[in-house]
Structure formats: C-alpha cells, structure tokens
Amino acid sequence: MREALFIKRNKDRWLKDQHTPIEDADETASEFTQLVDDLSYAKTFYPHSKITRYLNARASKAYMNIYQNRKEEHSRIKEFWTFTVPLTVRKHHGVLLFCAVFFISFFITGFYSAQHDETFVREMLGDSYVNMTEENIENGKPFGVYAEGGAFLMWMGIMINNLFVAFGYFAQGLLLCIPLLSSLLTEGIRLGAFEQMFFAKGLGMHSVLTVFIHGTLEISAIIIAGAAGIVLGKSWLFPGTGKRSAAFMHGAKEGAIILASLIPVFIVAAFFEGFITRYYTMPWWLSSTILLLSAAYITWYYIIYPVRQHRQTEKKEIM
C-alpha cells in the first residue's frame, strides 16, 4: 500500500483518538492495539517516514497512560524512579550531551587561562579565597577549608545552596536560556581555574581525589540541572507544530522531572562535602573508590539505564 493511501485510510481514526479522551478501559486497549499494528506496518514499509515517527510517539504516549494508570503492587514512587525519570532523561539525552560538552569546554578554557595568566585565578575566585588557599598550602593544610565548621551545619548549608542554584538554573531557562548558559560558562571557567591553582602547586592529583569526592555528584548535578532548564526554555522557544502554551507545559513537566531526580544527588553530594571531604588525608584508594562509585552512578542512571528502559519500552510497543 502506498504511504499516501495508508495515511488517508487511517487519518480520521488517528485524529479522533488523539483529540477525544477515552474513558473505557476496553476502548483504550483497543486503541493501543490498533496503534501498535499501524506502527508495525509503518516501520516495515515506511521506516524513515514522518508518519512512522508520529505513530511511534502516539503509541509511546498510549503505553505510558496504560502503564501509569494500571494497578500495580509497587508504589507510584518506584514507578517515578524506574520508569518516568529514565524515559524523560532518555528523551533529552541530546540536551544533556550539549550541556556536558559546553561545561567541559569552558572548564578547559579556565584551566588553560589560569595556566598562562597568574592573575586569572584571582579574577575568577577572588583575592580573599586565593590568599586563604595559599596560606593553607603553606601551613600544610591545602584543603583545610573543608574542615572548617560543624559537619552537620556544613552539610545542610551546602545542600540548601546547591538546591537553590539548581532551581535557579531551571528558572533561567525561561529567559531564552541565555543567563543559564552564562552561568554554566562561568562555573566551568571557575572550576578550571580552581583546579589549575592546585596543579600549579604540585597538588593536582591530591586536589582531584579530594574535591571530586563530592564534586563528581555536585558538578554532574549542576550540568543536569542546566539541561533541565534548557528543556524548559526550548519548549517555549521551539513549540513545534502544536500550541506554544501546551508545548511549554509539557517542557516544564519534563524539566521538573529531571530536576526532581537531582534532589537525592545534591543531598548525598552535600553529605560527602560536609562529613567526608574534611578527611582529605584519607588513603588514596578510599577517596578513589568514592569518586568512581559516584561517577558510576551518574553514568548508569542518567545514560545507560535510560537507554535500556527506552529500548524495552519500544519492544513492548511492537509486541
């Protein structure tokens, strides 16, 4: 069957099902079965067509509605972490990649600039912080700043501050994403300059093994929060063929899901900074283990697991 005839025969039913809410469970199941049949046919005969992508999106939405509304023994909270978050993240992997590359590029820029301009570190971090760090290095306590104050208060203060920063990044997505990209740029440069300050003193690896005990989770979460803000801003700037308001609400929901998934990450990162990083004289294998486990979690939950869940969902749609 030619694609035009296939569309003509089924268009009215697709549009009716799309714009008319179905309350009856049997009708919902019937609609989903028909969509899957149409999708299978389209994938076979028109694999690269827009209609195939359209049917795939419709079938995915129908599947999610059935999956989320059916009675399960496990809780909705478990569904959120095992289903909703991974599929939402997978949908926006391109945005996550862009933010990661953007941040790393300016981290390298900051590191290189500080390496070739002695005044750059002070411009980015401030004289007081640099003077305090140099004094700590001279006193044999290069990371003494992490041992100041009570661990619990430090944990709570850092956690609240990082959450505010993350929510701020998300809100900046409304402003054409320009302030958001500027914030990511600045943070990348500052971190690069910060690390070069220790590398210049011969403390580079010690710095990595100390700062990235908490920094692996914290920096990753900041980048992902930036991606959530871009998801929000992108939905407003590029609504597609639908209404701008509907696209914005959808983007806000998906950005909020990604942002919500970061709350435990910020809590754990702040805990590490408040209670563990202060023991920067710990054996290198212990700090390396914490760092690698943190990196493994981010890689698994925000890259590998979403891809796996997406593939499983596609298989169920075709069956």
Q: Could you characterize the architecture of this molecule?
A:
With 319 residues, the protein is mainly alpha-helical. It folds into two domains: 3-71; 90-305, no CATH class. It contains 13 helices and no strands. Helix 4 (76-91) packs across helix 13 (284-318) and helix 5 (93-116) crosses helix 9 (178-199). It is elongated, with a radius of gyration of 24 Å.
What would you say about this model in short?
With 319 residues, the chain is mainly α. The protein has helices at 3-19, 25-45, 50-69, 76-91, 93-116, 120-125, 127-138, 151-172, 178-199, 204-237, 244-260, 263-276, 284-318.
Main beta sheet strand tally, sense and closure: none
Series of H and E elements: HHHHHHHHHHHHH
> What share of the residues lie within helices?
over 70%
Number of domains: 2
The global form is: elongated
Task: Determine the N-to-C terminus distance.
Answer: 22 Å
Number of helices: 13
Question: Would you spell out the secondary-structure blueprint of this structure?
Answer:
Elements: H1 3-19, H2 25-45, H3 50-69, H4 76-91, H5 93-116, H6 120-125, H7 127-138, H8 151-172, H9 178-199, H10 204-237, H11 244-260, H12 263-276, H13 284-318
